[in-house]
Amino acid sequence: MLASILQNVINALQWGSFYALIALGYTLVYGVLTLINFAHGDIFMVGAYIAFFVASFALTTLGLPGWAALALTIPATMVLTSLVGVTLERIAYRPLRRKGAHRLYVVITALMAGLILENGNLAILGASRKAFPPLIHETVYTIGGVSFTNLKIAVIISAFLVFAFLHWVVTRTRVGMAMRAISYDKFAVPLMGIPMDNIIVVTFVLGSAFAGLAGILFAMSYPVLEPYMGALIGWKAFIAAVVGGIGDIRGAFIGGFLLGAVEIMVVAFFPSTFRDLIGFTVLLVILTFKPTGLFGVAKTTKI
Amino acid sequence: MLLSVENLEVKYGNIQALHGISFDVREGEIVTLIGANGAGKTTSLYSIARLAPPEAPKVVGGDIRFMGESILDTAPSDVVKNLKLALVPEGRHIFGNLTVMENLELATYSRDKDADLDKDYQRIFDLFPRLAERRKQRSESLSGGEQQMLAVGRALMTGCRALMLDEPSMGLAPVLKYELFRTLKKLNKEGMTLLLVEQNAKLALDIAHRGYVLDTGTIAASGTSEELAGNPEVRKAYLGG
Ligand SMILES: Nc1ncnc2c1ncn2[C@@H]1O[C@H](COP(=O)(O)OP(=O)(O)OP(=O)(O)O)[C@@H](O)[C@H]1O
Ligand SMILES: [Mg+2]
């Protein structure tokens, strides 16, 4: 009994880690720009593909051993994915912001940008799935009837490290302070001598880099890539961020794990086809009781 | 001339708010802009601060020069960073989700690495001891007057040499009002140039060297503070007879 509870906890943490990592990016961008960046799930997909190409290049062309290929893939993917995020901001969102476009148009633009990423991928790489090459040897450990792998533990630890890092950035650094300031009162930020666009770029760099990291980890855990892999998981991560209280990084983090836990629990007790139905219902109930999300404060501050 | 505004015309969308106004500010001066509600005072300061639409207006004619150079293409953050010209906006706009200290710290964002910040914090806390007592407090929990002090202190922390203030006395109790104006006078004695927008014309003319009277987007009168205070029309319209 205890073993099966622990087993589910580990599974929930691992599964929730992906939602948490992606939800953090949604919430950062929302906190700073009040923009729901619906392309974010597809940034995650792009990250997984970038990881695929970098890893394949490192393994075959460079002939590196798996661990070295991984050590190269992680930073390279994070950097390249953040470039994709920054480019998206530059060519899609910034011009609209300059023109003072209504939020609705920006959200529609985000949705379209996501579709363009999906279909661009489809057009360029074709519909066939890609098999992600194994980079590390997955070892299964079993302690007292609870089994887990080194990869699962690495996923969970990564999510916690990323959260700790972002929390530090937001609360302790000057850039983080500027991010919080923008979320409260955009108007006054340039009056402090702060170039707002730079802060926005940092926000997209952070969000996209960690979506890229999620992409690598996901591809290693479930090594089949396809262009739409970011769509559903992106939506779910977005919902996790809202349930946590969008704009607050603690909310995104907790929301991600909550969704992971709900899904794992549903699968433990019901047929797996019930997963999304029950999962979304639980989230809906939470929002009915707390519309601003678990950590949300009714319209004062974000991040 | 530190700042000169030349035939400035600005619009909010299609609505023209300033119809070719000109005024200037010399280094070391206190210059005041007075005028009724909607005259264009805030609009003038937003234009000089180079804030962008939609909140701020768009310059459609004329020029704004700082030390002789046009600043129409300068980004708002560079007005603060490079020109060292700061604005205390109407309605304070402090960052309520940050502490008092964080608000001050944020204002140092673009300052030189070797600036003596400790000395500047000390100066702010000497000017406004209340802020020192509340430095760890979330600033949205400050009283209105304290928030105004923070707005001024924050602008000073940018390391500015010239400061524009938009109705800094708004909502302050009379005692605090006089205290603030004494502080402004003191800052000016220490070399700070001030461009002061005030509804309270008497208070403004008391400390200013010169002033301009704005009326629906045009300059209706200008002169030294004594001249304006002695002008019968100005007395009638803004000084209560
Ligand atoms: N965002 C805006 N959009 C459209 N018109 C505006 C906007 N802000 C100001 N105006 C108009 O521009 C004119 C000048 O306004 P401004 O705010 O500069 O006046 P003010 O002198 O600062 O007045 P007050 O003493 O009330 O602060 C007014 O006619 C006002 O209606
Ligand atoms: Mg005004």
From TrEMBL, chain A:
The protein's matches in InterPro entries, at most eight in alphabetical order, are given as:
ABC_transp_permease (IPR001851), BCAA_transport_permease (IPR052157)
GO MF terms, alphabetically ordered:
L-isoleucine transmembrane transporter activity; L-leucine transmembrane transporter activity; L-phenylalanine transmembrane transporter activity; L-valine transmembrane transporter activity
According to its record, what are the GO cellular component terms?
A: plasma membrane
Q: Which UniProt keywords apply?
A: Amino-acid transport, Cell inner membrane, Cell membrane, Membrane, Transmembrane, Transmembrane helix, Transport
The biological processes this protein is annotated with in GO are: D-alanine transmembrane transport; L-alanine transport; L-isoleucine import across plasma membrane
- Membrane topology according to the record: Multi-pass membrane protein
A Pfam family of this chain: BPD_transp_2
Question: Which positions, given as ranges, span the membrane?
Answer: 12-36, 43-64, 70-92, 104-128, 148-170, 199-222, 228-246, 253-271, 277-298
Main localization (coarse): membrane
Where is this protein found? Cell membrane
The record's comment on protein family reads:
Belongs to the binding-protein-dependent transport system permease family. LivHM subfamily.
Q: What is this protein called?
A: Branched-chain amino acid ABC transporter permease
Origin species: Geothermobacter hydrogeniphilus
Classification lineage: Bacteria, Pseudomonadati, Thermodesulfobacteriota, Desulfuromonadia, Desulfuromonadales
UniProtKB/TrEMBL annotation, chain B:
Please state what the protein is called: ABC transporter ATP-binding protein
InterPro entries for the chain: AAA+_ATPase, ABC_transporter-like_ATP-bd, ABC_transporter-like_CS, BCA_ABC_TP_C, BCAA_Transport_ATP-bd_LivF, P-loop_NTPase
The GO annotation for biological process reads:
L-amino acid transport
What does the sequence similarity comment in the record state about its family? Belongs to the ABC transporter superfamily.
Recorded hits in Pfam families, A to Z, give:
ABC_tran, BCA_ABC_TP_C
Where does the UniProt annotation place the signal sequence? none
Q: Where in this chain does the record put each ABC transporter domain?
A: 3-241
Q: Which domain of life is it from?
A: Bacteria
**PROSITE patterns in the record, alphabetically?**
ABC_TRANSPORTER_1 (PS00211), ABC_TRANSPORTER_2 (PS50893)
What keywords would UniProt list here? Amino-acid transport, ATP-binding, Nucleotide-binding, Transport
Q: Which organism is it from?
A: Geothermobacter hydrogeniphilus
One function term, GO molecular function aspect:
ATP hydrolysis activity
Q: Which residues cross the membrane?
A: none
The lineage is: Bacteria, Pseudomonadati, Thermodesulfobacteriota, Desulfuromonadia, Desulfuromonadales
